[in-house]
Design brief:
heterodimer, A: 13-stranded mixed beta sheet, B: 10 strands
Chain lengths: 780, 232
């Protein structure tokens, strides 16, 4: 053992370049694997905290056009669904409706906004794992009772025993209520999509909204959780029967489905495919690292052939030599893994930040994972040790250069294939992101500030607007329900006449409810007719977009003007047609939209400002807004363009991921290339000498040496192009609006790879080519 | 043809400075066959490398065909070497990946001759070296004597003025060695100047003149036979 150590240390000292290339490559590989391993473990842990996670479902609702295409999918259902389901399905042990709402609470003398508040039925306590509250099921039965998280309890009651105490909250009209805390549960941690801090009894809510709301099949605002006794059979067809029982032929326009709790994260927030992509990237990077390791080891071993042969001559058995070499290789891998683990533990906050994740890394919590890593590193040590060792042991001559070149070339081609494919992907993702961020939306999202609006703000909207527009930097002010960048989830049945007969339309027409200032505030373009008028007209005025005109079948935007329509039983006329605009993210295509006034529903105010003196303008908006805010809620504002940017957050992380892994893959490929070129140059030293003696110029030698590498990059390019093209096309299909895969993306990727390869190799080949041939031939 | 004046060569490593040549003055006339002898490490190979324009001397002057070439840059040395000087080594130094034909063709490629011309010249020299039947073979498939004949073929294919042979028979048995020496003598008779480094007294008998080197200095010179016709 000691002898082995001495030999290894001496060898490292004599070959620092080889050793550091080898080591760096492996460490990079392991860092990726460790990080991705932690990432995947974290992703898989979502909603798994709950003891019954596998038996918990969430009820969803779908809507369909007449031709059967889905036009809306909501993770919420209407309030009548839950009690009816419970009667119908004997497997349902518990079912609970949840209505989410942010609210103001009194903390000392201040009003504090609590975002994670919900009203929930008592069964919620049996469905999810609430640690720390009594098993008593009556905690949420009474109106004005609540259970709160430990965080909330300590925030409001300074670590005093909270149960039995009261909290004061305010509704949107600033009426205050006292809430009795009946239980405190331990915090759930980050990885739950449903993360309530304050759960108020549903009866509180029911008495506020009244019975009619709870019977409304159109109010799909209730997240509904189910705990199943056992795995239900033929669930989908029974749910269809259930719907058809409620509505005749109901499944032709709506369906409900149940989604497993454990699937929610992947279906709505993360994606399973990203797990597979990351897993394959981890495998690839580790593979690249191991390839380098094998390559370099084989190259290094040429320097050790003498040592091995002398050992053999002296009497060491092949088995003994082999086991020593393998031990060396495994030790090397384990050391690399340990260094990688150290790097990750230091770098994890930065990495987590980069990927907008809550990842942490503590050895104690990840023992199993770390055990997997060690097994992996031993495995890699064995695998990558055995090939060079075998070659070494079977080589006959003292000075022969072992190993088939083709195997090594193949590995370098593979590394370049991966690098080129990643460069291509990176460029495509980048191009698409640029496209998304610069595409003309058909509305002007820049310089618009949005603030929330209480009923009082809306009631006094005209006064408020007059006051605001006195400021020269405020151009227009509009009240609306939902603002651009939000989902247009509201829709109603629409009737229109195409050939004289009023008929219900067979497709969904989403609505924007906004005042006459909405169109000018967002600088939307009217292509026919006029904007809705400020006065309340006898006949309701509607605006539609071009898509609605086309789908209804009116000949032209002009032909739509004056058309008589009914929207959710409200009769009225089309007064104007808007050019299509992208209200939602560019993942979604433009669909039919109708815009009309409905002041009672407004909850947002949009303010178009000039870019000058912005902070003063915002201060001005704040003071004005606060004047009309009876509830004393804290003022907050957002820029619409920033909201739009946030819609592409996930693409930005995709880009970050591709950037990171591209850089890593290229670094590993460069390391591999340095190793291989070192090896090749050493191998061809004599040939280079002979050629120079026979009249070859340095430039001729250089081009001869680099030719092979160029060839490998070319082969890698040819393989990478169709694969990257296919994969990126698939990725782009996520978007309704997408950039095209330009030829230059591919050309540039190839050139970059070629440039990198040539620079790396030329460093070596220049040294080899300018060497005095005498030195090369002297060793013969 | 070759004239050196007080040629010195010093090798420096980090710690030691070794003087390999010490004021060597040597004249080789056109058409002459000169053998350089001396024990290992006496500077024979260093002298050969400088004469062969593979290396520059540290000091002194070197005239090749009348021109001072001692301090030429590598680029210019290569230009001058091409087509003018052919090399024969003890260990043959054939390229394993190339076959006999391609090995011999090498200097012609770097002279940028056309393929047809090259073919003619290579075939002619292979014929002459009695190795034409092996043109498609690779060096590993040949005997030592055959390999050295290929090496000589490569050295002479471009009709150089000078052949430098570094122990050409060192790796050969006596029969093959004799054959090589006969080939060199024949080339010399046809007018090629030859400088040969050797350990072998027997081989040195083929030369017109033997120069004895010791510790980087010429200690004796002996004329073995007169040149039939001395061309200056």
């Amino acid at each position: 053992m000691k002898k082995l150590r001495t030999i290894i240390i001496r060898f490292i000292k004599r070959n620092p370049l080889y050793t550091s290339i080898n080591f760096t490559g492996l460490v990079i590989g392991f860092v990726c694997v460790v990080f991705i391993g932690l990432w995947i473990k974290n992703e898989l842990s979502y909603d798994r905290f709950h003891k019954n996670a596998d038996q918990i479902y969430r009820v969803h609702r779908y809507f369909y056009d007449n031709n059967g295409t889905e036009n809306l999918h909501l993770p919420y259902v209407a309030p009548p669904v839950a009690p009816l389901l419970k009667d119908e399905f004997s497997e349902i042990e518990n079912i609970a409706r949840v209505s989410h709402s942010g609210m103001l609470f009194r903390l000392n003398d201040q009003k504090v906004a609590e975002p994670d508040v919900c009203f929930a039925e008592p069964d919620i306590l049996n469905i999810f794992s609430f640690e720390g509250i009594s098993a008593d099921n009556n905690l949420l039965n009474e109106p004005l009772t609540a259970v709160v998280s430990a965080t909330i309890a300590s925030k409001y009651f300074n670590n005093e025993y909270a149960v039995g105490k009261t909290m004061e909250f305010f509704d949107e009209n600033a009426n205050s209520y006292n809430l009795k805390v009946t239980g405190v549960f331990e915090d759930w941690g980050q990885n739950n999509h449903f993360r309530p801090e304050i759960i108020i009894s549903f009866s509180t809510y029911a008495s506020a909204v009244g019975e009619s709301e709870l019977q409304d099949w159109g109010s799909n605002n209730y997240e509904t959780f189910v705990l199943m006794r056992n795995a239900p059979r033929q669930l989908d067809s029974r749910l269809d029967e259930f719907i058809n029982k409620q509505f005749e032929n109901g499944t032709s326009w709506t369906k409900i489905r149940m989604e497993k709790l454990a699937d929610i994260h992947f279906n709505w927030y993360g994606s399973r495919s990203s797990i597979y992509v990351l897993l394959s990237i981890a495998v690839l990077i580790l593979l690249l690292g191991s390839i380098n390791y094998i390559n370099l080891n084989t190259a290094i071993y040429t320097k050790r052939i003498k040592e091995i042969h002398i050992k053999k001559v002296i009497g060491a058995t092949a088995k003994r030599i082999l086991s020593l070499l393998m031990l060396e290789s495994v030790l090397f891998c384990i050391v690399s893994l340990i260094v990688a683990l150290l790097i990750v533990s230091v770098a994890i906050p930065y990495l987590a930040n980069l990927f907008n994740s809550n990842l942490t890394f503590s050895v104690g919590e990840n023992l199993a994972l770390i055990a997997v890593f060690f097994t992996l590193s031993i495995f890699i040590g064995l695998i990558s040790g055995v090939y060079p060792a075998k070659i070494l042991l079977t080589s006959k001559k003292f000075n022969s250069t072992p190993g088939k070149m083709s195997f090594r070339n193949g590995m370098v081609i593979f590394q370049f294939f991966v690098s080129i494919a990643l460069i291509m992907s990176f460029l495509t993702v980048n191009k698409q992101l640029n496209y998304l961020q610069t595409k003309n939306l058909g509305l002007n999202q820049e310089n618009v500030i949005t603030v929330s609006a209480s009923p009082n703000h809306i009631e006094k909207l005209d006064v408020l607007r007059n006051q605001l527009t006195k400021n020269p930097n405020i151009i227009d002010v509009s009240g609306s329900k939902r603002i651009p960048s939000q989902r247009l989830a509201d829709s109603n049945q629409m009737k229109a006449s195409n050939n004289g007969i009023m008929e219900p339309l067979g497709f969904r027409v989403a609505n924007i409810r906004g005042d006459e200032h909405f169109v000018p505030t967002y600088e939307m373009k009217l292509i026919a007719g006029n904007n809705i008028s400020p006065q309340i007209k006898e006949e309701k005025e509607y605006l539609v977009n071009r898509s609605a005109v086309e789908k209804i079948g009116w000949e032209s935007p002009e032909a739509a003007i004056g058309q008589f329509v009914e929207y959710g039983d409200e009769k009225g006329r089309i007064v104007g047609v808007l050019e299509n605009f992208n209200y939602e993210s560019l993942h979604n295509a433009v669909f039919p939209i109708i815009l009309y006034k409905d002041a009672s529903s407004y909850n947002r105010i949009s303010i178009r400002v000039t870019p000058t003196n912005l902070s003063n303008t915002i201060d001005f908006i704040k003071t004005t807004w606060e004047e009309y805010d009876l509830a004393g809620s804290p003022f907050s504002y957002q820029f619409i363009d920033e909201r739009f940017e946030r819609l592409y957050q996930s693409e930005k992380y995709t880009k970050t991921i591709f950037t990171c892994f591209m850089v890593l893959a290229i670094s590993i490929a460069i390391l591999g290339l340095i190793g291989l070129s070192l090896f090749v140059m050493e191998r061809r030293t004599k040939e280079i000498g002979v050629r120079k003696v026979n009249g070859a110029k340095v430039s001729e030698i250089l081009s001869m040496l680099n030719k092979d590498f160029v060839k490998w990059v070319a082969i890698a390019f040819v393989i990478a192009t169709p694969i990257a093209w296919f994969a990126m096309n698939k990725w782009l299909e996520n978007f309704a609006y997408r950039t095209n895969l330009s030829w230059w993306i591919f050309a540039l990727s190839g050139l970059m790879a070629l440039g990198i390869a040539l620079l790396t190799v030329s460093w070596q080949s220049w040294r080899a080519a300018t060497r005095n041939p005498v030195e090369a031939l002297r060793y013969e | 043809m070759i004239k050196t004046e007080n040629l010195t060569k010093v090798f420096r490593t980090e710690e030691v400075e070794t003087s390999a040549l010490n004021e060597v003055s040597l004249h080789v006339k056109k058409g002459e066959f000169v053998a350089i002898m001396g024990p290992s490490g006496c500077g024979k190979s260093t002298l050969m490398n400088i004469i062969g324009l593979l290396d520059n001397p540290t000091g002194g002057e070197y005239y090749f065909d009348g021109a001072e070439v001692g301090q030429l840059k590598e680029r210019n040395r290569t230009m001058l070497r091409k087509g003018n000087i052919g090399f024969v080594f003890q260990s043959f130094n054939l390229i394993d990946e190339l076959n006999v034909y391609e090995n011999v063709e090498l200097p012609l490629i770097y002279l940028k001759l056309k393929a047809r011309e090259r073919k003619e010249m290579v075939e002619k020299v292979l014929e002459r070296m009695k190795i034409a039947h092996r043109a498609k073979h690779f060096p590993q498939q040949l005997s030592g004597g055959q390999q050295q004949r290929v090496a000589i073929a490569r050295a002479v294919v471009a009709n150089p003025k000078l052949i430098l042979a570094d122990e050409p028979t060192g790796n050969l048995d006596s029969k093959n060695g004799l054959e090589v020496m006969n080939l060199l003598t024949e080339l010399n008779r046809e007018g090629t100047t030859i400088v040969m480094v050797t350990h072998s007294l027997h081989d040195s008998e083929f030369a017109h003149r033997v120069v004895n080197l010791f510790d980087g200095m010429i200690i004796t010179e002996e004329v073995k036979k007169e040149m039939g016709e001395i061309l200056l």
